[in-house]
Structure formats: C-alpha cells, structure tokens
Amino acid sequence: MSNYIGIDLGGTAVKLGIVNMKGEIVETVEVPTLAETNSADKIYRNISQAVGALLEKSGGDKIKGIGIGCPGSISPEEGTIVSGISNIPALNGFPLAREIEHDFKIPTFIDNDANNAARGEFLFGAGTGKKNFIMITLGTGIGGAIFINGDLYGGVNNYAGEVGHMIIIVNGLQCTCGSMGCWEAYGSATSMIKRAKALVERGIKTSLLKHYPDDINAKVIVKEAAAGDMAAKEIIISTGKYIGIGLANLINIFNPELCIVGGGVSLAGEILFKEILKYAQINTLPRAWDVVEIEQAKLGNKAGILGSAALAYMKMK
Amino acid sequence: MSNYIGIDLGGTAVKLGIVNMKGEIVETVEVPTLAETNSADKIYRNISQAVGALLEKSGGDKIKGIGIGCPGSISPEEGTIVSGISNIPALNGFPLAREIEHDFKIPTFIDNDANNAARGEFLFGAGTGKKNFIMITLGTGIGGAIFINGDLYGGVNNYAGEVGHMIIIVNGLQCTCGSMGCWEAYGSATSMIKRAKALVERGIKTSLLKHYPDDINAKVIVKEAAAGDMAAKEIIISTGKYIGIGLANLINIFNPELCIVGGGVSLAGEILFKEILKYAQINTLPRAWDVVEIEQAKLGNKAGILGSAALAYMKMK
Hints:
Strand content of chain A: 15-25%
Oligomer: homodimer
Largest sheet of chain A: 5 strands, mixed
CATH class of the largest domain in chain A: Alpha Beta
Largest interface: A-B, 46 and 46 residues
Number of helices of chain A: 10
Helix content of chain A: 25-40%
Structural class of chain A: alpha/beta
Distance between the termini of chain A: 13 Å
CATH topology of the largest domain in chain A: Nucleotidyltransferase, domain 5
CATH architecture of the largest domain in chain A: 2-Layer Sandwich
C-alpha cells in the first residue's frame, strides 16, 4: 500500500506528514515557514529540507505522491501559487509544486487549503461515500469547496467556491473584497469579533469586557455565551442565523446530498450549530432540505496534512 | 441524420416540433393543453394525438427520440412530473414520458423547462462549445440551470439550480416560497410589476398610470422608461442592480466561463442589460470576472421546443 506526503503550508508553520490510505498520519515534520525572510529561495530550501527529513523518516517506504495546500488562489496546472497568499508574499508566482517534483522525482500537486480540506473529508472524513457535496470553512473568512460527481469542481480557473463573497444583504456591511453585504461580513469569526468589540465599546453590560480588546475571539464569545452572557449569546444567535441563511442559498443552488461545515467557528459548539441548522432549514426549499445532511467536518486540525495528501491521491488515481 | 421531437408543455398550449441537428424546427404542431379539464387522461390523450399528428407530418423520417419540457419539479428517471406544475395540476405524479414512450416505441425523456432551455443553448445557442456555464431565466420568477463538464448538473434529486430562492436581502421582501429576501422577489418580472403598481398607488407622477392596473408588465415598463418616464426608469435600474448582484453571487460560486441570461425580462432591452452587467462586475471578484462572458440567450421563443429536443439528444448520445 502506497503512502502520500501531505504538506500544510501556513503563514507561520509548514506541517508535513506521511499519510497512509487509512487516513492515518504515520510520520510528521514541522518547520517554521520563514515568511519574514521575504525570500522565495530561502523559504523553498527550508520546505525542501523538511521534505527530505520526512522522506528519511519514512524508512524507504514508497511515497507515491506529494500534495501541498496553502491559502490563496492556486493554478494547479502550473504548480504555481498565483496570488492572494497574503501571509507569504514572497511565494506569489513561485512554482512550488514543480520545484518539489523536480528535486525529489515524486509527482507533486498543489491547491488551496479549502479545496484540499474538502478532498480530505471526501477520502477520510465526513464526505466518504458522497459524490455531490459542498463544504464551507468558517474562519477568518468563509471558504467553500464544491464536489460534483466525486471530484472537486474548480471552475474555469480554479476559483470556484468563493461562497464567502456571496452577497446576502444588498448594501450591507463592507467586506474586505470591496463589495458590501458579503456572507463572510456576517458569518465569519472576524465578524463575530467585530460585533463583540462594538458592543463593549457601546457600553453594553457584558462579560466580554474582561477580554477586550485583544483576547476577544470566537471561542471566548462562545464560552461567555455558555456562561449566560446575553450579549455573547446574541452574537452567536445572529451569526448562526446568517451562516444558516447562506447555507440555505447553497443548498437551493446545489441540491447536494451533504454539506460539511468546517473551520474554527464550526467548533464553537452546539449553540451556534443549532442556530445554523434552524435558519438553514427555514430558508431551504423542502424538496432540497429533505435529501441533504449537514455534518461537521471530521478531520479537525489534521485537515491540512490529510487534505493535501488526498489531493495527491486523487490526482494520481 | 436523425431528428428529434421536442415538446414544450405549457399551461395553456402544448407546442411540438421536429428538430434536426442544425437546430432547425422543420415541422410543428400546437394544441391547447386542456389543463382546465382537470383530467390527466384527457390531457394525455390530447398530447398523444398531437405526437401522432407530428409523426405523420414527418413523412416517415426517423425520429430518434422525444424530449418533453414543462415547469415544475421533475423526476427524469421515472419519467414523472413530480410536483409543482401548478398550472396543470392534473398531471402531478403522471408518468408522462413513460406513457409516450410506451405508445410510440420511441425513447422519451422529460425535464423541467429551465434545464432544457440550458440544454438548447448548449447545443444550438449561446452555449455552444462551452462546458461550464450557468443560465438564468428571468420571468415570473428566476430560474437557473447549471452546466458542468458539458452536462446539466441536476443535484441529488434534480432540484439543483433554484437560484431564484437565493436570499440577497436577509429579512427582505416576502417571496412566494415563504422565505424573505429571495432574489426573485427583487429581480423577476413579478417584482417589477409590483413595484410599478405601488408607485402608481402612491400617487407618483408616472406614465405607467395609463396602463394601471392590468396592462402593467415588464415590456410596458421598459417602453415607458425608454420614452423618458422617470419612475419606470428607476424600476429598471433597481431591478438591473438586483439581478446583477445575484448574478455576481453565482459567478463567485461557480467561476464559469459563461452566464446566459434568458427569459422574458432579459428581452427588456439594453437599459436593463447594461445595469445587470454593471452590478455584476462591481460585485464579482476580479479573477472570476476576467474569465466570464455574459450573453443573452439566443433561442428566444423556440427555446421550449429546441430545449426539449436537446434533452432527448443529450440523453441518447
């Protein structure tokens, strides 16, 4: 049985793992990304050495392919990080997969982390056995990935799934993309934190005050809501409502068998998930709702490595 | 070269045509639907006789397949009109395609008219040569169809593409589906007519008054706008804005190579189309906008017959 290497390339750390086809990570290596050096060459050599170290750990087991996942817009055909990888600007335009493949003579593939997360869930997680599903990743923004006929749908230039910029309130809140009223301006961790800070600043009585400003995050808001804080609860409920409505939009559009909800915000607990389900159901047409399952992602913090390995596996099979 | 029969089953008339592979309708038959008889049996016998009449007109040319298009939710596998065909209620659950196939010994297929319109554009119209595109149909509501990898994407139970019920304004206008703020509550002909009537009722000075109430329709609003009426112009501009924003959502989600805009409202003229394009561009991420074309549907009032024939062709090839 062949193994694959998955590389999770983040802004601060590069996490590498050898993955077997049971979805187990059997060896790992982790190195700092060195984004601050601002040198593609240094960053690349560091990653390359880490791959070498991992291959040594593999003890000669055959590695069939290498997959890389990173944030940003990727051109998989060219093995290039095209743009938008704002936390590692030196790698913009760098043909990372092609270089790794050249150095190690192992087929290497690259795609963005939201797409790979969906591939990981498809092979090893909540999506096993499903052919048509969507996955949303609730974090700083809202990412999306679309599976159709058992494969990731990338669109014309691998840019499909930008669900976070679906407008749910015309003339609504300003989004980072320049438009107004995007889904992620209402349903992301960033939006929760903004709302929490605004409540504190308006002098509303809330236990969030003691975390203000720098320690307010989605987890803290959920914790305070669970402890009975009304302002925190209100943030969770309205965030869940917005997430649920956007999810309903996607279910009405795709008529999928499954929606996987992943990302940090999705771990915020039962209160939020209950609200998401409630508003998704209210706003989905019954015939589509009747056939869809909504599940939380299963791979958790292994999604980066497993998803990247899944990319390599799916490209080579 | 084989020909196909396309059947456009509407609430008042059934239009049948023999279609060749150049996309020409070489023979036609039209009969009333007889929806008012409320008898599936009578309606079926009438359609069946019309098929017989058309086959006689074909003069013995081989008919390879028959396609049927109708509004509502269709289960193509069972050859059944499942539900939602509100203007011919007697046919709910009636296995129309199966019966035709049985009677004429010609393979027969059925799907909803929005899906078939997209198939027609794919084979004979604006979508030729395109593999990944979306089509929206602007009429009483907003219909949608999704083409992926050169085939219609139906979702789990052929219900995909319900783009009209994508919410673009949370807590917005009431939609016929029960939700609030759906796209079609802002971008359909129905919404234009509602707004026009409301303006007249509020006593706004407008030439729409002379059409009030029963002659106000999308075409009239466009005509009065073109003649300089400010209220009519304002309706067109805001409708175009809403349509454009919903279209941007779909382009961000699908990253398609083409969006085809069809339906009666799309024929409303250049003013509306200009607004649609303007707001679609403003709200689409640049990388997706750069690769997408927006085109008006080409099949016009032949879409029903040509689309249904396209269904049969695509199912049999």
